[in-house]
Design a protein that fits this description.
Elements (H helix, E strand, L loop, with lengths): L2 H9 L3 H16 L2 E4 L2 E14 L7 E5 L7 H8 L3 E11 L2 E8 L5 E5 L8 H31 L3 H13 L6
Antiparallel strand pairs: 1-2, 2-3, 2-4, 4-5, 5-6
C-alpha cells in the first residue's frame, strides 16, 4: 500500500462507518429495502455488531445474538460517539440471500455465505458460486453508490438530522 492510498483512507475513513450507519438507519426506519436495477434488495442487520470509539480501539462495544442493532446498548454506544466498525449483514435479492461481516475501515468482507447453488456437477457449482460472489459485489457497489449520492446531495443535511434524531430516540428495552 503506497502513501497516497494510506492518505486517502485516512482522509475519507469516515465514509465506511457512515455508510453502515446509513444502512442501519434505513433498516430500522423503513425495513432496509432498497431498489437495485429496479428490483428490491433487503439489507438486514444480523446477529453481530461492533461499535468503536474513533479515538481509541479500547472503547469497543461488541454486541451479538438476536438482533443487536435493535438493542438499547447499540443506541447508547452511538449516543456516546461510537461508530459502526463491523456488522454482520444479510442481504436478500429475490430467492438469494448472502450473509457476511463487513469491516467499515477496509470494506473487507468476512464469513461470507453465498446462496445455495443447485446442481450436482462440482464445476458448475464452483462457477455459480463465483457468480454469486460477483453479484454480491455488484449489489454492495450499488448500495454504496446510492449512499454516496445521498451523502454529497442536497438531501443529506435533512437526512443527517433525521439520523441524529433517530439515534437519540428512546429505545424500548423490554
Amino acid at each position: 500500500m503506497n502513501d497516497a492510498m494510506i492518505d486517502q483512507m485516512q482522509r475519507y475513513g469516515f465514509l465506511g462507518p457512515e455508510f453502515l450507519l446509513w444502512l442501519w438507519y434505513r433498516f430500522d426506519t423503513d425495513g432496509g429495502r432498497f431498489a437495485v436495477d429496479g428490483e428490491p434488495v433487503d439489507v438486514i442487520f444480523d446477529n453481530q455488531l461492533t461499535l468503536e470509539g474513533h479515538l481509541a480501539e479500547a472503547e469497543t462495544s461488541r454486541l451479538s445474538g438476536g438482533l443487536p442493532a435493535n438493542s438499547p446498548e447499540a443506541y447508547q454506544a452511538l449516543r456516546v460517539g461510537k461508530r459502526v466498525a463491523k456488522a454482520r449483514i444479510r442481504l436478500a435479492k429475490g430467492a438469494n440471500e448472502w450473509t457476511f461481516v463487513i469491516d467499515t475501515e477496509t470494506f473487507n468482507i468476512g464469513g461470507l455465505k453465498v446462496p445455495q447453488v443447485p446442481g450436482t456437477d462440482k464445476h458448475d457449482q464452483i462457477i455459480e458460486r463465483f457468480y454469486m460472489i460477483e453479484e454480491l459485489d455488484r449489489l454492495l457497489d450499488d448500495l454504496y453508490k446510492q449512499f454516496l449520492e445521498h451523502r454529497i446531495g442536497a438531501p443529506w443535511k435533512k437526512e443527517f438530522k433525521e439520523m441524529a434524531e433517530w439515534v437519540n430516540e428512546p429505545v424500548d428495552d423490554a
